[in-house]
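User: Show me a protein chain along with its predicted structure.
Assistant: Here is one chain, sequence first, then structure tokens.
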Amino acid sequence: MSGWSAQDVPGQSGRVAVVTGANSGIGYATARELARRGARVLLACRSEARGVAARDRLVGEVPGADAEFAHLDLGDLASVREFATAYPHDRLDLLVNNAGVMALPYGTTADGFETQFGTNHLGHFALTGLLLPALLVTPGARVVTVSSPMHALANIDITDLNSERRYRRWIAYARSKTANLLFVHELARRLAGHGSDVIAAAAHPGYAATNLQAAGPRMAGRRTAERLMGVGNRFFAQSADAGALPTLYAATAPDVPPDSFTGPSLAGWRGSPAPTWRAPWTRDDRVSQRLWTASEELTGVTYDALKG
């Protein structure tokens, strides 16, 4: 995969893709390049105004693109169910679980979950389960979940998934990104046991300039931190387009292994896509199964198609 770029994304004609958080940053770049290669892309976004604007921008950059906005708030399980119920296609070739929040002040989702865990993990867990029937009937389908090298800061605490005993914004973020990798690990294991050819894989963008970094400091009123994030994005980060390459690779390149983790090649920071390091606890079968069971109980989404 040395030197792999957006020019290497294979043709996607006839394929249907859902990209969460596709109104900006990594998600937008991913949706645009899939559309450029001929995919029918649903931009699944929380804000209708930003989502529609992103769709219009995409069509302007890729004339003739088949792209549409669909409302999805991953912090509200009712919205996730509404999205899945309204999903307009009988197939789904690619689900990119990209949307996320990072290092926010303590808060809760509409369903009472800690915001980072609830949005980054539980929302995508529910969405994937509800869209699973469409994935299972589509030959060669993939689920790509975006994690982060920051997962290395913390394993999950299965006894305190919602950080109720103590909340530290960066630890909570790291735990949500560990949860993403444990989800991919367990989903890949269950798909293999079911005899399905659906591939579950993970990716991360390295250090890419997006809106994600400044959101937490802005919400907390930490203006110095917000400015420092802006400086980092300007002088040290790679572009969102470059940051999207690991996701695009995991989503489209041939022979991507199940439960793989793709990131930038240069120290996980920047560069072309390559296999990337992950903490050993993200492949712990016992913990991944316990998290799966807890996630089913918390969301009410039970992945019945993989049972029996």
